[in-house]
Amino acid sequence: MFSSKGNFLEIVVFRLCCCFFSNTWFVPDEYFQSVEVAYHMVYGKGHLAWEWLPEWALRSPLHPLIYALFFWLLKLFSLDFAFIIRWIPNIIHAFLFAIADICFINWAKNIVGYSQNGLIHQRGPYVANTKIAQYVDERLQKDSDNTIYVLQLM
After folding, report:
1. 124: region left, alpha or beta (phi > 0 left; psi from -120 to 50 alpha)
2. Helix-helix angle 62-76:35-43, to 10 degrees
3. What transmembrane ranges does the database entry give (predicted)?
4. Model confidence pLDDT, tens digit, residues 110-148
5. How far is CA 140 from CA 66, 82, 112, 126, 129, in A?
6. Distance from chain centroid for Cα 106
7. In sequence order, what DSSP letters do the residues of 102-152 get, joined into one string?
8. Per-residue b or e along 44-53, where b marks 16 or more CB atoms closer than 10 Å to that residue's CB
């Protein structure tokens, strides 16, 4: 799947830099529909939006469970410091999108025959690179077509 370990590490470092140098929320509501819910699952405190209340239960818990797993592991090993809790969702996204970048590079290599042009175009737009590692989680939940497309590229 990966073209090389060095290429993957380079892309992970790039995505992590994008994650840490952008300190804003792109879609603030999605923080409360994912990370806040995961925090509530693990620690039993925090605010739950009305969609998560038992009498409504409009959303699937699968997406927040991604974060809850990491929060639970941090809690289990007593590493659940505020700084780590704050940044772990961004780091998760950075790794997921690094994998998607590698899939894109491999796809470009198969279609065009040369992957570096694909990588340049993938990294070009500032907004795409800084916002992609943030909480645009509604896309992860609802846009199954894109998820299936990325899985096909893998």
Report:
1. alpha
2. 50
3. 65-85, 91-108
4. 877 765 655 665 565 555 555 554 544 445 554 444 555
5. 11, 25, 28, 21, 17
6. 20
7. HHHHHHHHHHTS-HHHHHHHHH--HHHHHHTTSS-HHHHHH-HHHHHHHHH
8. eeeeeeeebe
Global pTM reads: 0.70
Token reading at 68: 């809850």
Q: Give the pair of three-digit tokens for residue 19.
A: 């994650």
132 — phi, psi (to 5°)?
-65, -30
CA distances to 44, 60, 71, 81 from 77, rounded to whole Å, are 18, 27, 10, 11
Helix (H) or strand (E) run with residue 40 in it: helix 35-43
DSSP 4-22: -HHHHHHHHHHHHHHHHH-
